[in-house]
């Protein structure tokens, strides 16, 4: 049986945020191809206690706590002429762990999840690089909205990270992105789109009890200390909510101060919940008003699988082959019209939701999405 080295920037269990959903299913799929040896970071203390769970899929697992703050990472990056994103994940303990793993055995394949982890491989290593999204493009977009020193920092990050991404792709046997749009944006080398999937058995409305909240209820889900999510809900509350009825529930862990400040008579901020499915099931409409989005949005696929009507921004919908089973809104006025129309006509909303679930079942099963990995890694299934 093949040995596979899997480097991931966050522990791929539990699959409780977007990037960990993809890495979790990648880990599970790799375990069907060989013995997986995992090296990953934990930036949440709770992620240090999952050894027994990881043993279901991994022959060995090394998890390094990541405690470096943004300020320290920025200082190190400026002093070393590096991208902050790389300095934030630069740890001696991880370098030592990867060196030990590489010395211990010969790997038939190496899978690197997220660009920050590529810094741990020697130049002569053969590996598949899963960038997921094109992070340098994200910082280019941030720079357009920033001012003063922050604009300079964002431009610097985009430039340095872009150069790093290209150098990694030049070394990789294959470079992966989560959507064809991201792959086309990168554009050079052996670039492939390997899309996200959805576990339609887990995200099944028949298996979930909705939370008891008075409606009409509009729901957004996501990691709420992540800037694109923060910007999305602030924009929605400011530009869309005044034009539609009902209450808006922001559901997700670690809400920032800016998100908590939105709480009011018509805005609920839950913080972390035990099971996000109950909130999705209770939604009359799920919204994804992301102003900046890269690749395939798990939050949209989850709502589709739960048979809820979805209104998504153009950016949030771009990577999803929805075949008309969600509504797409290009500006605040369109969001108001689409959300209000679905709230006014629950039958139309239920019909749209059922079409969305059917689409996810037909198009987005994880096994089908990840089937190309064996060939890309040079392994036999």
The total count of helices amounts to 17
Low-confidence stretches: none
Identify the overall geometry: globular
Strand content: 15-25%
For the termini, the CA-CA separation is: 10 Å
Major beta sheet, specifics?
7 strands, parallel
DSSP summary, beta strand count: 13
Strand order of the largest sheet: 3-2-1-4-5-6-7
Radius of gyration, taken over Cα atoms and rounded to an integer in Å: 21 Å
The helix/strand series, from N terminus to C terminus, equals EHEHEHHHEEHHEHEEHEHEHEHEHEHHHH
Overall mean pLDDT stands at 95
Describe the overall structure.
The chain has 381 residues and is α/β, with parallel strands linked by helices. It has 17 helices and 13 strands. The chain has helices spanning 18-30, 51-54, 70-80, 84-87, 92-104, 135-145, 148-171, 180-186, 227-239, 257-260, 276-282, 298-305, 314-317, 332-344, 346-363, 366-370, 373-377, and strands at 2-8, 34-42, 58-65, 109-113, 128-132, 174-177, 191-193, 217-221, 247-251, 267-271, 285-288, 310-313, 327-329. It has a seven-stranded parallel sheet, with helices on both faces. Strands 10-9-8-11-12-13 form a six-stranded parallel sheet, sandwiched between helices. The longest helix is centred in the middle third of the chain and has 24 residues, at 148-171. The protein is globular. The relative contact order is 0.11.
